Amino acid sequence: MMRLVALVHLAFWSAFSRPMRTALMIATLAGGAAGVTLTAGVLQGYARAMEALTFGAYSRSLVITENSFVEDRFGPPRLSDITHIREALGERVEAHAAWRRSGGDVRVGRYQASLQVYGVTGAFQHEADMPVARGRTLTDGETRSALRLCMLGPGAYRLLFPDGGDAESIRINGVNCEVVGVFGEPRSQLAERYRNAVIAPFTATARYFETPDRFGFQPGAHEAERLTIVLLRGVNRDAALIDADRALRRAHGASQANVSPFLFADPAAPAEALARQRDLIARLLISIAIVSVLVAVTGYAAASMAAVEMQRRDIALMMMSGASGRSILGQVLAEGIILGIAGGVTGIIIVGAAAILARTVFDFPFQLDGTVIALVLAGGALTGLVASLGPARRAAAGSPALNARA
Asked: Which residues are listed as membrane-spanning (predicted)?
């Protein structure tokens, strides 16, 4: 142990005894580390930003609807199915919502529009991803009630209140509804469906606002057009789908051997186009990162060989003092590892500082996790080790007399 500590101490002394040379070697490796770090951060940030912009939480959700291609007696999913699914999935669920949709004649004074009316219970903000521009949002308790409350999408508000006045109440199919809030512009592509819509509590919609002749879906009071189960990030969606399907079959008395009476909409299908776009950009960025790493390794190897040549007399004095070739080899390799880690840390710091500035000023999508940082540091250490291997073997194999005359 003491010998290892002494070896590391000598490696530190040798690495930083010539500041200019050390700074040049660290900067060389930092360039490669920065290229890899930047590539990983941009890819992760871009993927997360595009997912949020296009699909929101839909890309990690189970969207459950009735399987209309199968003749059965089970009907659409029910509100009680949420309990069965949550029990089956346990802590893998982040949130849930139940939706029913109908059409309605919506009137305010002399203004009238034919709009979609959505009844919802649960965390509907994951899908109706829109900020609140006026008033407030519906609370969880209100979505589970039969209160005649509602919110307007931005398009619906402009149709009913073209003068931009306060939205206090509207009439949906002749029934009065208090407007508690107005949404702003949608933040995801899927939220666009609620632009020209009214959102109200699930039970209130079923009880007051629906008319049989205005929509094709005619459920019972506790039946939903769709259930949305939002999974936590990192959860295996396929495994969750299987568990949810089993739970629903048991709850409805459906055979496990037959086709499922429910469809689990596949958010991965529209996400495939996004994944292909991301892969194309990934190939470009990875190519740039590989080139930067190759340049960094080549430059570091050349600098390492030059550094060992400059240290030949020091190495000769160490050998004459009793140092073995094995200890010389270990010292030079340890020096390479130290400089490699220092280069990795420097590259991460440079990219991290630049990313924080770009994200703050330009809202640039950049995200970096601990795994990438650990891999960059390990890669820096490995690069330093491999690049120093040749010079280290040459230094350890040289004779003290030849080294001293150099």
From this structure: 284-308, 328-358, 370-389
